[in-house]
Structures are given as C-alpha cells and as structure tokens.
Amino acid sequence: MAFYSADPAMGQRLADLVRALEQEGRPGLGARLSITWLRYPESLCHREPPETSPREAGSGASWRGDQLRQPGSLVNLIYLVASEAWLQRQLLREEPELRRAMAAMVQPAPSAHGATGLIVDFLSGTTSGPSLPQEQFNQWKSQRELVNDWLESLGWPELVGWKACQKTWVDGPYGRELDFHQSAQGHRNLLSTDGTARLLEAVMAGLIISPPACRRMQSLLERSLAESTAHTTETSKQAGFLGPGLETKARIWGKASWIGEASHAAAYVETEAGAPMILIVLSEGEPCPSQEGLLPEIAGRLMNYQPMG
C-alpha cells in the first residue's frame, strides 16, 4: 500500500505533461525522468500531534517513481535526516561544527561539498585518504554502509535499493574514495522520487526522528522565492521549483541539484491559492537546448492544476 492515495486524474495529468514536454523539444525525456507529485488538503506544518489528530493521506501520482537514479547533492537531504537520527541515538555529539556542516550542505548556493564530506565522516566514522590494504578497506566499506543500514531499518518499501554512502565531489573522488566508487558491489548513491517524497513528507509533518528535529530541518530547508527571483540565475535555480505557477508569496522547503545535464529537486510548496504539494523530480540523460528550464516548467504546470468536479 502506497503512503499516499493514488489519484487517476493526477496520474493522467502527469502523463500528459511528460508527453507535452517531449513534443516541445525534449525527445525521449520520459525515459530519463522520474516525478512524484502529491497534493494535500491542508498544510503539513504546524499540525497537532498524530496521536490526537490523525493525518489525512495526500493524493498523488508518479511517473517512474520507483526507478533508482543518481541524485547528485540531493542526497544531502538524506544525510540531514540521518544526522538528526544519529544525534537522537547519541551516536553523535552535539557540537557547533556538526550543526554548521548540516546547514551548509543543504543551503541553496552553491553546493558545499566539503560540508557534505564532513557529515559523511561523522555518520560513518570514516575519512578520505589513500587506498587501504584490503582488510582495512573491507572494514571501511562496512562503516560507509551505516546510512544504508539505517534506511533499510525504516522498513519503507519506497526505500528498497536506496544507497546513500558517497560523498559529493567537484572533480571526482581519489584514493580510497575512488576505490569505493568503482567497486564491483556498486556503491554509487541511488534514490527514487517516491522514497524522497515520503521522506520529505515525514520531515514536513514532524513524523520522523522527533517534532523538534523536524522543525530544525524545516528551518534549514526553507527557501525564499521572492529573494531568489531578484538575484542570479544560480541562486534562482537553487531555490528549487520556480516558474509561472509559483507566486512570489509562495513558501517552499526543499533541496535542488544541477550536475551537467542532470537536474534534480525536492520541494514542499504552499501558496495562497492552491493546495499544498510535494514535487520531486530526478532527471538524467542527454542535454537539450531547453533543459535548463525543465524544473520550473514542470512546477509551474503542476502548481496550476485544478481537479475536475
């Protein structure tokens, strides 16, 4: 059973959108694109505790929502939640440098790879460096799987096959990091849009780790659309889903990633006019002239959706 209620009309709207995007100069996009799109009857934020006010499931649809894709720095959303989980279990010590890195790795401009690397070191108890002898390397690899083990322990079917064990890089890994990246077991980061939607929903609704931890994560993920539209293209991109359907007063929480031709984003959006929504997009493949505006275009068209009846 999905964590959301499948809506056939939304599914048709999503299929029509992908088909339209292909016809407008993005041939073959459907095979290179995953989308999960959810709508909610009310805000996910500031609700009463679940035990006193049961949460109504969102309605939604997905396009290749269970397909595993490489997420770029969108993986930092997982590392953020894992860090709060480690702190709750007292596997990490509360300290300013940890909090500074947690904030830096999910901020909108530009991706802080050094912060991500430090968080991965904190979570796994490993460090980068020269290649290791095989016995030591096997232990190192086992520790690098700790976040994957935690994801599996959640028991969510949407997370099956996920991997979150690699650092993010500017010019690629070296030494033991390269050995790990190239190992036959396949240790590259892999996420799906369905699982990312469930994780972001849990953060926004205060349903994972603890409500105080979720509020801390929400504060790090909140973006200002009004500010982003007045600044550089890079800042505007990193704010997430911008487009004609998003008013400047919209509130948005999320994380985005651009690596070459690949565009990824995860966002929870609230506007004055439309229903709150979660929109997760992972894309990959050959670049095309209109690739840069892909995420804003998807967001704008889906934000304007009005259900029939």
Write up this protein:
The chain is an alpha+beta fold. The chain folds into two domains: 5-69 and 210-303, no CATH class; 72-182, no CATH class. The chain contains twelve helices and seven strands. The chain has helices spanning 8-23, 76-88, 96-106, 113-124, 134-144, 146-153, 176-182, 193-204, 211-221, 225-228, 233-238, 294-303, and strands at 5-6, 33-39, 59-63, 222-224, 251-259, 262-270, 277-283. Strands 1-3-2-7-6-5-4 form a seven-stranded mixed beta sheet, with helices on both faces. A hairpin with a 2-residue loop joins strand 5 (251-259) and strand 6 (262-270). Helix 2 packs parallel to helix 4 and helix 3 packs across helix 4 (113-124).
Topology:
Blueprint: E1 5-6, H1 8-23, E2 33-39, E3 59-63, H2 76-88, H3 96-106, H4 113-124, H5 134-144, H6 146-153, H7 176-182, H8 193-204, H9 211-221, E4 222-224, H10 225-228, H11 233-238, E5 251-259, E6 262-270, E7 277-283, H12 294-303
Can you tag this structure with a few keywords?
seven-stranded mixed beta sheet; 7 strands; 2 domains; alpha+beta; 309 residues; single chain
